[in-house]
């Protein structure tokens, strides 16, 4: 299961980066989803992917890495014919912060691990 999650995490990370760095139209111009919501969701998923791929990396470091990745994407977008935006970076950071909060809440309720520890 761990290998499967890592493959999913790697594929998800690569697909999201390809979508964010591809030249051409933006999600907002295609009317598929509001641009900031897309960044928010994408960077929550990027944090999850980093957490799956680098399990021993502390989540706060993974969060900082995800935000740095968002900043790098915004800089690169200026060179591939897309518009870099501080608003996008803010949405990226909020998505990472929300994913980090959800992860923290989730870790408090580790019922399966707690059950296994009692039965050892």
Describe this protein's structure:
The chain has helices at residues 2-21, 35-53, 59-77, 86-108, 111-118. The radius of gyration is 16 Å and the shape is globular. The two termini are 22 Å apart. The model has no long low-confidence stretch (mean pLDDT 85). The protein is built from five helices and no strands.
For the record, give the distance between the C-alpha atoms at the N and C termini, rounded to a whole number.
22 Å
Biggest sheet architecture: none
Give the overall form: globular
The computed structural class is mainly alpha
**Low-pLDDT runs:** none
> What fraction of residues sit in β-strands?
under 5%
Q: Element order, helices and strands?
A: HHHHH
Could you give the count of β-strands? Answer: 0
C-alpha Rg (nearest Å):
16 Å
Rounded mean pLDDT is: 85
Tally of individual helices:
5
Helical amount among residues, as a percent range? over 70%
């Amino acid at each position: 299961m761990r290998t499967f999650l890592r493959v999913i995490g790697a594929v998800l990370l690569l697909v999201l980066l390809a979508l964010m760095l591809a030249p051409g139209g933006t999600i907002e111009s295609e009317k598929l989803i509001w641009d900031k919501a897309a960044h928010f969701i994408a960077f929550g998923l990027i944090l999850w992917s980093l957490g799956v791929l680098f399990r021993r990396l502390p989540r706060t470091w993974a969060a900082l890495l995800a935000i740095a990745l968002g900043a790098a994407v915004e800089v690169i977008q200026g060179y591939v014919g897309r518009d870099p935006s501080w608003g996008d970076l803010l949405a990226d950071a909020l998505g990472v912060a929300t994913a980090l909060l959800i992860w923290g809440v989730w870790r408090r309720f580790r019922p399966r691990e707690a059950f296994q520890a009692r039965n050892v």
